[in-house]
Sequence to fold (357 residues):
Amino acid sequence: MNHADLNRSPTDSLNATPRRLSSRRLLQVTLLGAVGVATGAALLGVSTVQAQKATTVRIGYFPNLTHAPALVALERGEFAKAFGKVTLQTKDFVSGTQLSEAFAAGTIDIGYIGPGPAINAVAKGLPVQIIAGASNAGAVLIARKGVNIATFKDLAGKKVGVPSLGNTQDISLRHILKEQGLKSQVDGGNVSIIPVAPADVAAAFSSKSLDAALVPEPWGALLESQGNKLVLDEKAIWRGGNYPSAVVIVNTQFAADNPQLVQAFVKAHLNAVNFILKNTPAAQAAISAQLLKLTGQKVNALVLQRALARTRITADIDMDALKEYADLNREAGYAREIPDLSKAVNLTYLNAARAGK
Fold:
């Protein structure tokens, strides 16, 4: 994967996020220290989640299939059951950029997010760590019906949607543009990159305000079912489909103060992952119910089947892919440096959950 020369103009970066971060430097923690505190506290074996400091756990996620473990756990009541008397609060977001801002504001404790924004958050100094994976692949490039886009190079002069600037699909799109000899308008090329919520892409296609979109599932499969054209499937986006599309991050201070709550969350998350893999029809029903509640759109079973076939639900973390995303973040101008991923990733809770703890 050639990452060379992916530099971008500052005007194409999300300036709001750095300003938010600079006002919250007092929230920063030394990540290595946080690992030691959180890990040590977890190993103490606090007997109940009620013994923790927090009275509420705030979880953020997106109404996407790539966040299926969150959708299934919520629909089945897994999180509420895991936390016992501790109150569960949830909030859905459109993109990793929004969720990162919520972490910066201190309004979210645990969140499902794309690997690009997760690494970018660490690089910007947010007190967060990656504690589990959620899904791999699950993103496709769809062209509006009637638009002459047969290959990626046909995006020249077109308007292409991504969930937000700086999110995982945006980073992937810019990498492919570079590989194909194309550039965004901000970089001096003729491809317009426009942030549009995945659930709103169908309306943007109808109004012809977008020509194509790189979207997470199930929105790609839904757009395809409406007569739009699949240009690149999940395998053609990057690394033959072997790349993370969603991970789980936690506020490190919250983890240090509430290790048993975080452990309870990861156990529920892992249960949801396993349920999806072993009980696909029931999982699809749970996902469909959550998507309807969150977006008002009903995704039928056939569309969900197609979307799931392009998405690998997993709690695993691909460190090589994370390192590549970190490099792309820096080269794209979203981060000034590549963070130390040995400090940014803490798999203590996941390993304990898999060991039955």
In short: Confidence is low (pLDDT under 50) at residues 1-50.
